[in-house]
Amino acid sequence: MLWLWLLPKPAGAEIQPQVIAPPTLVWCLDHFPHFHEYDNSDTPVGPSVVLMQELARRAGFQLSFTPRTSLARCLKLMEQGDVDLMSNLRYSDERNQFMYLLPYSSNVAESLFLRKADQRLIDSKAQLRGLTLATLRHYLYNPATMALIAEESRHIAQVDSIEVALEMLLRNRIDGLVAPTISTTEAIKAISSYQQRFKIAPLDFSGVAPNNIHLAIARNSPNAALKPLLQQHLQTMIDDGTVARLIRNPKDRPDVKELKLQQP
Description:
By secondary structure, the protein is α/β, with parallel strands linked by helices.
């Protein structure tokens, strides 16, 4: 037995260095037209998807997608630490309790959508008093819009999706829809019967308060320690123009301009 131990070991028997697989982070996605959406496929598409894939490549982790999941459900899964990431989120103190929120883009523009045949010229928030408006449930608007919603809460109908709200608007069940400009424009473009049926009011919803959107990392995630790494690479993507290239300003989009110019 001693003789066997003293024999030279074959080269293949040498101890090989342990290869550590990159971590897999689960990104929870709802349906947010243009930014990230499931288009009759198990794989989401959109600028947010490209952005997250590039972040994964730079930071060295594997990115996994949930199936299409409601915003409320994604937030609950984040709170429980059952998923790792969300994107396109605005800050709130409540969310900050269970998520690290890393800003990466300055704005998701919002607009008031009306029926094209509506003759009213609405260019001030005072004109909204008495109108019945729809807003998106669980979606955080910019601070100025949130204040308006609180003031007019008696006349606000909360709905679960842009598509539901557009159908309500078309059927005269509400007077207007306050929603993200690009996503709602995309939802209108997606349905042929919606063409030439809606317009964007000249009312300015931009506000003056900080209006950042964030990448969120669940504080209870087993991968929460990766936050500094993700923050570092996300900042690099901001600095080198990757984020600005992917998240285009809605003012540059011809389809948005067309909806703003439409008259009854």
